[in-house]
Structure formats: C-alpha cells, structure tokens
Amino acid sequence: MNPHLAPVEVPDPAALTHVQRLCDIPSPYTSGPEADALFEAAMAESNAWHAQRSPLFRALLDDTPEAPAPTVGAHTRAPLLHANFFKRHEVLSIPRDEVFLHLTSSGTTGQKSQMFYDRWTIRSAQRMVARIFDHYGWITPDQPVNYLLYSYEPAPQLRLGTSFTDNYLCDFAPAHHTTHALRHTGSGHAFDVHGCIDALRRYAEDDRPVRILGFPAFLHFTLERMRAAGTPPLELPPGSLVVLGGGWKGHADRQIAKADFYDEVTRQLGIPPERIRDTYGSVEHCVPYVECTHHRLHVPVWSRAAIRDTRTLQPLPYGQPGYLHLVSPYITSVPAHSVVMGDLASLHPGDDCPCDLTTPWFTLHGRAGVSRNRSCAVAAAELLKGMS
C-alpha cells in the first residue's frame, strides 16, 4: 500500500466509530443516502467529543441552535464559529502535550490563525489529499519530476500552513530537482522571479515532467515578466502538472480572470487546461477541495458545504452568494469542525457540472469585508470571555 494511503486510527475508537468509518471511505467523491447518514452520525460524535473537552464549544452547542443547512444535514448540529475567531484565540480540545503539529495561516496582514493538530487530525487530512491525488492519477512513485514551488523556502521556525502543504505534495512524486520561488533571505522571504524563469528554461530542456505548486499570483508574475522580456513560449514535458493554492493574498488588485490565467499558463508553458487545477483549503479547515477537469471545486465525501447569508447567517439555496460554511467531523484537536470562512461563495448541485463527479461544488467570489467578518468571531469571543 502507498504509505500516504495507510490506515490512521482516531484517538478514541469507541467514541469516534463513525468518524473513523467516514474518514476511511477511500473514494473521495462518494455520495448518496448511506454516505449522508454516516456523515450525520460522525458529526454527532464530533460534537460530543468537543463538548466534553471545550467549554467554548459546549456553550455554543447549548445556545440557540443555528438554522440547519440542508446540504449539511437537516438534523446535523453545526454551530457557527467564524475562522477569524482562531486569529484571536487558542481553543484546544486536547491537552497541550498531545499537540503533534502547530501551523499558522499565511495572511499577509494582521493576526494569523494559530491552529494545533493531534496526530490523527493532520494525518487524516493528509490522507484525504493523497486520496484525491490518487483519484486523478497524480501519485507517481516511479516518475521523478522537477518541482517549481511558489511557496516559502523552508526556514527555522517557519510554521505556515501553505509551506507545509506544498512540501507534503512533493511526496507524491520523487523530486529530481526543486526550486523555491519565495527564497529565505535570513530575515524573511523574497520573490526570486529570475530564478523561477531560469528554472522553467532548464526544466523545459529536460524530459522529466514539471510540477508547479503554490500561490497563483507568483506564477502569473513570472509569466508576465517572461513576456515583458521577450522570452518565447516554453513547452514543458508531457505529464507536467500545475496545482495552485492559497489564493492571490495581497495581490488581489492584480488578479486576472481564472480562464485568462489558465490560458496564459497553457500558452506560455504548454500545459493543457486539464492539467492545471486550483485548490481551496485553510489551516482552520484542512479538508482539501481540488478542481475537477472542468475547474469546479467539488466537495469530498468527508465534508459538507453550505452558504450563509452575510446579514442573517441563514442558509441560502443553490446559486446564491454568501459566506462559505464548511463542516467536517475529522478534526479532534480543535473545535473547528464547523467553520464559517471569510470567503464569499455560491454552492451548486453536482449535476450542474459536466464532469462525472456527483457531489456539490462551489465557486469563490472573493473575500468578505472585515467588519462583517467579525460578527461570528465576536459572538464566540464573548462566550469565551464569559467562561474565563
């Protein structure tokens, strides 16, 4: 068995039987009544787990129930906790000595989320990534590749979730050579655009596939600089792959339409559109969302998504934009199994996508305003303050 797909055991098999069963489902886009019933049972176990270990979550669970979202489950409790809450508070459901990994979000300004994982939580999330990569045939242990990583070069005390994820993705194909775009300077990181261009030129002359991972903005800046310098289009070897993640961060003012960006990558690097995929995820919610061949972010079997009205937090029907609400019982270290993200999105039924996946998918519409983001976080903070 591939080591990335190896079994992982929940912290308490008796208390988390259904969580184990749900996370053991090998096919990432399984759907249907049986999967829904298992998800509901797993969420009930996760709620009980955190209620016993987190006074904050116990208070949320005892408070007025949130309006249930049909896409999560009509009888599934999923109290609303905003991702911004984790930028201000450390709330654990495990003792500190059981923390296996500590990561932070990669926001460019303001406070960063501090997230803590036990071994089960992070290994379970990694196995989800591996299963999706396996689903698309992207685990190639016998095919070395060249990597261009648009993420942070490893450095002492670097705990960014994006860096951790990109380095983990390098385990799915052996590295012949690796180039980091954001080089460690000794006091921080700097974007080495010329080093990226030189790497692409070298890799184009090699017969090994190239894997480009990381922030899309920096890949766009590289291609932009190549055009400005009159660099002719390159033809990267067959089997090359682009997997993007982390958004445009502090460069939203220079963001271009996704279709235009993908056309740019195909035109200048020779990578076909079906080999270019964006992803969505966060340190607060590590379940991976990876675009299908038609570039839709389908929801995997281990999670559920809903859209909440930005004013009332009521669930919205398919097609209407609002806060993205993500729910998964996999996490046992922190009560972050029902998180309202700071992103605006709309949800769509699976059959609205021409691919063969049947689970719902969502479209991102940008970040919500800071003042609105604070509503759920402030409510949770008041609960926390009342218990201190």
From TrEMBL:
Record domain Acyl-protein synthetase LuxE: where: 76-382
InterPro entries the record matches: ANL_N_sf (IPR042099), LuxE (IPR007534)
Top-level taxon in the UniProt lineage: Bacteria
The protein's name in its UniProt record: Acyl-protein synthase
Source organism: Streptomyces yunnanensis
